[in-house]
Structure formats: C-alpha cells, structure tokens
Task: structure prediction
Amino acid sequence: MDRTELIEKRKRLEESIADADMVLVGVGEEFNESFGDIGSFPHLMSALEEVDIDQTLEWTVPFLEHRFLIEHNEGRLISAYRKLYELIQQKNYFVITTCIDENIKKAAFDTGRLVEPCGNYERFQCSEKCCNELYPSKDFSDLVYQAILDNVGLDSLEIPRCPVCGKALAYNNILCEQNYVEEGYQKQWEKYTKWLQGTLNKKLCILEFGVELNLPNIIRWPFEKVAFYNQKASFFRVNESLYQMAENLGDKGVSIARNAVDFLLECKE
Ligand SMILES: [Zn+2]
Result:
C-alpha cells in the first residue's frame, strides 16, 4: 500500500468515526505484550536469572510477568492505545480485546465499555478448575514484589493454592487453556452483547486493529457478520499481514495493510 492510499484510507477512517453514532473496536494479536522491555527492569531481570538457575522456581514466571505489566507504563503499545482513545473518546464506543495484558487500561478508556473475553491478571482461579471460584491476585502480587525488593530470594515464596482442592492457583486467563474459568468476563460480555443489539439501524463504525486468526470467533467473524447485516456500517480492518476484507461487504469494507500499532502511532494529535 503506497503512502497516498494510506493517507486517503486514514482520512476515511477518521471521517467515518466522526460521522458514526456508535463505534465498535476490536483489538487483537498485534497488540499482545511481548515483554521485550523487561530488560529495563533490573530487579525483574535478576529474579528471572534466579529462575534460570533453579528450575523449581519456574512457577514464579507468570507472577514476574504480572509485576512487569504493573510497572511498565510507557512504550509503543501504550502510546498506540492512547491514540486510539483520542480517536474514539467522544463516541458511544465498546472495545473487545483478546489481549490479556491489560495494557489498554493504561490509556483513559472507560472500563465499563471494555470486555476481555480471554481474561487478564486481575484474579486467580484454580489451575485444575475444581470449581469456578475467582480470587483477587493483588495481595500475592505484592508479596512477590516485596520478596524481590527485600532480596530474600524467590524460594522464600510459596505458590498460592486453591482453598478448595489445594492445587495451584493460576491467573484467570486463556493461558489456563481447557481449564480457563470463563465466569470472569461474563458480566461485561452481557453488557457487550446488549450494546451490540443496540447498534442495529445505527450508523456504526467498526474498527478492527491487528486481529489475526488464532481466535476468529471472538472478533473477526462476528465483526464481519455485524458489518454485513447493518446497512449503515463501515468496517476498517487494519492488519500487517491478514488485512484481506470479506468480499460480501462491498463498499462498507476498507482494508488497511499496515501494522495496527504503527498505524495508530502515526495518527496525528
Ligand atoms: Zn481447586
């Protein structure tokens, strides 16, 4: 895609947002946290070195990653989220994301208008899914942090355990695979589906940013369906490699062959 075409499509996207009654946003794989900046956090690096030496500490890695997510408040992903927020903040919007890293919450989005069906790091669940109970993760996260700060060694920590069956607790997200407890996002999901029902006959601008095909039934396919059935919809798909637009969307669909994070970073103030 050449420069002129990109500028033209960006303009069309901005106009479409301005003109819309409602804005539906999907955020996917291109926004996944890579933990690439973890090297700038020496206390976390030395904790990871400790894990390298003692394999029995492997269980602490997700907790160190969570700590990184708490402390890492700048960077390209977060800047891109801020740009996205600027684009849609005046609108009646809803955001659905497959990311679990909660970076999106570092921009000023209304979390009442956000659903994270793949979970996040806010709560624990039983890793064996003996029940659907969820527990706040904050206290344990603070404990890990304290152990790092005090330099007492990660081996002073004990893995948090399910109060029901005694198996390890894990963060309530899709990394639990088949044991993932889906209760965590249900309330927001109901809000989301209700909001979606309200888009019918409304001028709806659909923005899909960096969504690939790992979990197509969460964002990609449903968005195409919503765009197809809404006569007043416009649908922008921004993606570096999987930018192809469904043919049945005709003029409604605009495909932008650009990494979604870069695309947003290039948006002007
Ligand atoms: Zn259990």
In short: The chain has a mean pLDDT of 95. The CA atoms of residues 63 and 141 lie 7 Å apart. Residues 126, 128, 130, 162, 164-165, 167 surround zinc ion (CB under 6 Å). The beta strands are 22-27, 92-97, 114-115, 119-126, 134-136, 169-173, 204-209, 233-238, 253-256.
